[in-house]
Amino acid sequence: MSGLVRVRLADGIFQIEIARPEKKNALTAAMYQTMADALASAEADPAVRVILISGAGGNFTAGNDLADFLATPPMDESAPVFRFIKGFANLQKPFVAAVEGVAIGVGTTMLLHCDLVYAGSGARFALPFANLGLTPEAASSLLLPLRAGHAKAAEMLMLGEVFPAQTALDVGIVNAVLPDGQVLNHALDRCRKLTTQPAASLRLTKQLMKRAQDALIRETMNVEAGVFRQRLVSPEAKEAFAAFFEKRKPDFSSFN
């Protein structure tokens, strides 16, 4: 999958680029597997000082490729998507994201685990899990209320509506909003700064910042994954997916 997920190590910066621009970088199981392996490799490589993730073609990621997702649903913890989520949640090294265009589903939830996130002014975010008859992932049911407060997190997770970069900045999902086209260069500049810092100090600082919530994040992720797998076979999810492929509005009125 090297053509759809590109990795590069230069001067201590390990770059992961999601490169499926014709599909707005929608993610398949094979792409999740490649990214999970890339994160594990970067975490173990002493030459890597910081990890940077971005998307090609003006978008970060549209989230799951639904056709592939339904063909290979994640039914246990060994599924590539869960390996990827655990991979970025457990990183000890600095994790930075450069976000332009759409950041849907996991494209937003992974940002809650990044240390630095920079977004373009035209970036758009969404957490459409409930819209699809599903539930949150990657400890977002814990982390988003902590960042945004319950009311705003409920709006994002229950209504699943698209929200702009300024809102992501206001609630603490991103560090800064920059003009579109300047995001990656700015993120690389911040990564270069991180490579000049003492590596052990950065790892320990990150560990200390996460220490109070680390066990709760892991527990939440495990609970979320179990509920998510149950919801995949629910009547609501089946209706949502059918409506998506049939290009119609789903009808949940008969479900309780």
What would your notes on this structure say?
It contains ten helices and nine strands. The protein has 256 residues and is of the alpha/beta class. It has one domain (1-180, 199-256): Alpha-Beta Complex (2-enoyl-CoA Hydratase, Chain A, domain 1). Strands 1-2-3-4-6-9 form a six-stranded mixed β-sheet, with helices on both faces. Strands 5-7-8 form a three-stranded mixed β-sheet. Helix 1 runs parallel beside helix 3, helix 5 crosses helix 6 and helix 5 crosses helix 9. The protein is globular, with a radius of gyration of 18 Å.
Question: What structural keywords apply?
Answer:
256 residues, three-stranded mixed beta sheet, 2-enoyl-CoA Hydratase, Chain A, domain 1, alpha/beta, 15% strand
Quick gist of this model?
By secondary structure, this protein is an alpha/beta fold. Helices cover about 45% and strands about 15% of the residues. It starts with a strand and ends in a 10-residue tail after the last helix.
The overall pLDDT, averaged over residues, is 97
Number of domains: 1
Strand order of the largest sheet: 1-2-3-4-6-9
CATH homologous superfamily (4th level) name = 2-enoyl-CoA Hydratase, Chain A, domain 1
CATH first level: Alpha Beta
Number of strands: 9
Structural class by SSE content: alpha/beta
With helices defined by DSSP (H or I, 4 residues minimum), what is the helix count?
10
Using the CA coordinates, give the radius of gyration: 18 Å
* Major pleated sheet: 6 strands, mixed
Q: Helical residue percent?
A: 40-55%
Low-confidence stretches: none
CATH architectural name: Alpha-Beta Complex
Portion in beta strands: 15-25%
Distance between the amino and carboxyl termini:
41 Å
H and E order: EEHEHHEEHEEHHEHEHHH
Envelope shape: globular
- What is the fold named in CATH at topology level? 2-enoyl-CoA Hydratase, Chain A, domain 1
